[in-house]
Amino acid sequence: MRIMTQVTMVMNLDKCIGCHTCTVTCKQTWTNRPGTEYVYFNNVETKPGIGYPARYEDQNHWNGGWELDSKGKLRLKGGSRLKRMLSIFYNPDLPTIEQYHDPFTFDYAKLIEAPAGSKAPSVSARSALTGREMVPEWGSNWEDDLAGAPHRALSDPNLATMADKVKLDFESVFMFYLPRICEHCLNPSCVASCPSGAMYKRAEDGIVLVDQDRCRGWRFCVSGCPYKKVYFNHRTGKAEKCTLCFPRIEIGLPTICSESCTGRLRYLGLVLYDADMVTKAASTRDEKDLYQAQLDTFLDPNDPEVTAQAELQGIPRDWILAARRSPAYALIAKYKVALPLHPEFRTMPMVWYIPPLSPVTDAAEAAGYQDSNADDIFASIDVLRIPMEYLANLFTAGDIQPVRQALRRLAMVRAVMRIHQLGSDIDIVPEEVGLSEDEAEDLFRLLAIARYEDRYVIPPAHAEDAGRLMAQHSLSGCSLESEGGPGMGGGGPGVTSVSTFHPGGSDVSAPLAQRDNRGRLHLRISENGGSGQTLGGYSS
After folding, report:
1. pLDDT value, residue 515
2. Maximum distance among all alpha carbons in the chain?
3. DSSP character for 456?
4. Which of 107, 298, 354, 457 is deepest in the core (most CB within 10 A)?
């Protein structure tokens, strides 16, 4: 058992109001500079919809993530290393700028400097990339609130198996918001796809980053990521992605998207997992079993054996205590109301979502049910506007049962707390959904009225590491101070290269992780998911 830690985010979709505040603050903090005009490390999509970039979820087209070969072993869906090397100067799996959107602006100077006259001056949209006049036809939030749904929504890949069941008319339409950032996966295909070894996963907290000095702009990380959350800076010729605001994480602060979220829907915390189980879990043959397989890799931080092993392997005591208080672990593994986004991509994503529960009381009353009866509440879940089949296609590779269980638990919490507030006798038994009354109340507090320190349980980097971290940051400089963006001035980890990749898992002598020249340990992800595929030890 090799115990490692991962900073994990959970988002409660019931609380997202689609205000895009997270997108704006992330944009202003990380990608408000030349070369990243079209880049959104965080974006909020309306579902159903084709997303950003267009139809990014259709891996039959984009070939992102992993698949199993005939022997049941993991391999990159984008093809072998030889195939990718042969297409290194022309990658057919890259989205075009039109599928992201051609960013546009306006010549405001023309409005300000226009001479006095009887006609009001006007300006046309101009491409922020070429400066030419253009007519905007697509954008990162073009589908907000189902805008254009009659023409585009049915192209949502998640509706492919149920288009006949969904009617996008006024009486039966449904929608919800889906905020997205990099998933910081346990088995990241972007890292394995990178031929220059610039992509790496930090051993101490699992954050996936790009070493800008090693990046050569081949862009296989862009096509290899099934969530399309790696971007190409056309100004610097480098790849960039969400950093999970690691400078904030290292001092115990939440990400800027979490800090600014008006709906308070984001939770951050540590999860302990068994690195030795990652390859086996990602290789699970039946896609519907991938959710449970990933759950099985997580370790209970309250287990004395796990605690003892974690301390022996160098995980600091306060990090273990933080894992015990982690809201992410509670929502994912204890209460099981949070689900992963597209586990069928086999990257084992670590940004999880609590599925939206439509106004279940209204649905119960509309169907003639009594909201004080548990059976009626549960029956109304099956007739909610948001089809469970759609949520299952989004979060559990089509398996409805985990979605139904999560929604039943959320509905039970609502029913119990409503009865508490009304002062009625409790005739609803939370044990019907596997919760005690205390657990139902605890889940309510976490989801509804959790304090700041309960939503974000992030242990800061250790004092003994402060000198090393400060030295690293002083060498790399603040990412916002240099034109190139995140880490442009850094020395980089200097860890993985093409020579360390081992096709077929034959290079069993290769180390699972290597230390850089500053003593930091980084994981090595092979391109085929073979021996030594994921992980190294812990950097203490």
Report:
1. 52
2. 81
3. B
4. 354
* Nearest Cα residue to 298 out of 278, 269, 315, 318: 278
Q: What DSSP line would sit under 248-310, residue for residue?
A: HHTTTPPPHHHHH-TT--EEEEEEEEEGGGHHHHHT-SSGGGHHHHHHHHB--TT-HHHHHHH
Contacts for 474 with CB less than 8 Å, ≥ 6 apart: none
Residue 93: count other Cβ atoms within 10 Å of its Cβ. Answer: 19
Q: Is 111 helix (H, G, I), strand (E, B) or coil?
A: helix
Q: Can you list the domains of the chain with their CATH numbers? A: 1-101+138-160+184-355+452-500+525-540 (3.30.70.20)
| Closest among 180, 179, 199 to 189, alpha carbons compared | 199
Count of alpha carbons within 13 angstroms of residue 518, beta-carbon side: 19
pTM: 0.83
**Tokens matching residue 481:** 């101070």
For 13, the token pair is 């979709």
Token pair of 422, please? 């009304």
DSSP-derived 3-state class of residue 5: strand
How confident is the chain (540 residues) per 10-residue block, as mean pLDDT? Answer: 95 95 95 93 93 93 93 91 84 91 86 84 86 86 80 78 62 83 96 93 93 93 96 94 95 95 96 95 96 97 95 93 96 96 97 86 54 55 78 94 92 81 66 84 93 95 56 40 36 32 32 49 52 33
Produce one character per residue of 268-304: b if its CB has 16 or more CB atoms within 10 Å, e if not: bbbbbbbbebbbebbbbeebbbbbbbbebbbbebeee
Q: What is the pLDDT of residue 168?
A: 57
